[in-house]
Amino acid sequence: MSAARHIGWAVLIAVALCTGSCGVYSPYGAQTSGASTYSVAAFEMLTPLATASSALVLTEELRDRIQRQSTLRLVDEAGELQFTGEITTWEVTPVNVQGDETAASNRLTIGLSIHYENTKDPELGFDRNFTRFADYSSDLDLLQVEDALVEDIGSQLSQDIFNASLGNW
Question: Can you give the pTM of this predicted structure?
Answer without folding.
Answer: 0.79
